[in-house]
Every structure is written in structure tokens, then in C-alpha cells.
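Sat 14:20. Reprocessing the chain from the morning session after the first attempt stalled halfway. Input below, unchanged.
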Amino acid sequence: MSDALSTPDLPLVTRAQLAEAFSRLGVAPGDVVLMHSSLKSLGRMDGGADGAIDAALIAVGPAGHLLMPTHSYCYVNNDGSCAPYDPAASPSRTGLITETFRNRPGAVRSGHPTHSVTAMGPRAAWMASGHAPGGGTFSQSGPHGRYVRLNAKIVFLGATLAANTTYHAVEEWLALPYLPDAPVQVARPGRAPETFVVNRPSGHRSFYRNSGLNLPNPVTEALASRGLIRPAELNDCVLLMVMARDVIRVTTEMELESPGALLCRQDSCAFCELGRHHCVRQREATRRLGLALLAHPEMCDPSHPAAE
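Finished this time. C-alpha cells:
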């Protein structure tokens, strides 16, 4: 049964309607958009996942770029088992829209074995490059740095900022001390898989893995209080948009002011308590990295032109 017919009691969402909702968010032809998504939030989407992708591509136009997180989390398990990462075959574990997107003709997936990004657009291959398995999980020389320098808009289609991977990019760029290393394996045709060690954004945060606790997330609240999160509605689906550079600036500023800003403040959470302790201990090193990051308008100021 098709996605459009699976819930006949809900109104049908057309590609044109969803494209218009993206436009109300502020998405315009030629934009670079990183989209986090939930197909279920749309109810009855004409064309299912493909229809949602079509609408996003209509919104950015032929000169624009659409990116999605296609994370596979191909870590080596404690018992040594692992499904080696293969960019062409490893499924995306960030939703049906992203899994459909990575299989689209013209889509280019990055080479990182846990947090790959897939891109479509005139320069998709360049957008997805620089994300080798031996490099940073959110390297500034890869897709995450590139979409920020290109002044991307981050869209949340039926998702919340709990899915905001760009928070993790800031954690890595500031070298925050609670990100452990983890082994991964990458498939090699005709040869044994190759093992690498990558930065793993594991553990608890104020914005995810809360098991229904609904903890306050100071950084998301700061973005909202400053009017930096733009909403739009389509039937029961809520769409949100925030500029990538606003996320970088606000998160960095808050980390400099309050070490461990993305960690929760539950007394019972040992991970966040220990992580904050280490953030305080390395506060001066973080300050140097943060001030250097904030000094670059192409990373922190949406009014600055796109830069490569």
C-alpha cells in the first residue's frame, strides 16, 4: 500500500503544498538546505518519501543544494562484530526520507562510516567530499563546514531541534572533552574491511536521549528567545528553520559562558555531570577555540555572504 493511501482519513499533502510550506519557512531557489525529517509527521504524503524529497528539491530549485544526514552508525560492537560501512549499501538510520534520498539518482553520499551526509545539487560531489573515515566526524573540511560556510538553512520537517546534528559539530570544533573515540570498519571490495577510530557523539544531552523527561535545552531556548527559529505549519505537521551560522554562534557563545551548555543538569546524570566537570577544567582551551571560531563571519554571521 502506498504512503498516500495508508491513512485515508488524513488530508493528502501534495508536493506543491509542501514546497509552498518550505517557501513560507524562507527557503528560496538557490539555497543550501540541510533537512532533518519525519515522513510520519506529514500524515498522507502524495508520493511518500519521494514526494517529500521532490517538494524540497522544488523549493531549492535546480541551482540549490539539498543535504540530509544519512547516518549509519557502523561502530564495532563490544563483541568485535560490525557491519562495515559501504556508502552504496549501508542503510541510513535517520528515517525513511533519508534512506530514499541516498538512493536517488544524482545523490552523492559522503564517506564517513557513522555520520555520513548525502547531497543533491550541481555541486553535490564537492558538498559530500572531505568526509573521510579517518577524519573528523563533523570536520570543517567536510560537508558540515561547507554547508555552514555556504550559509545553509537547517530545516526540520516534523522534527525538533533534538535532531540538530550541527550541535555536535560545535562540540567537535571546540574539542569538548566528553566525545569519546570509537572503532569503526569500512568495507573494501575484494579485501578485508579497514578499521578506523572516529569521534563518537555518544552519551546524554539536554536535547536528546531524555526518555520523555522533557528537559530544558538552554541552547535551543536561546535560539527561540532571539527569534532565530522560524516556524511554518502544514496541516498537523510543524516545520522549523534555523540558519546554520546562528546555531554555530549561539552554541559557541553559550559554551564559552557556561561550560557544558549542551549537557543536562540532572544531579542523577553521571555522564553530564562528569562531562561538565571536564569542560570546566579545559575552559581556557575551549575559550581560545571558541573565540577563533566566532572571529570568522563566514561561520557565525548569516548576514555575511556565502563563502567556500
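The chain is about 35% helix and 20% strand.
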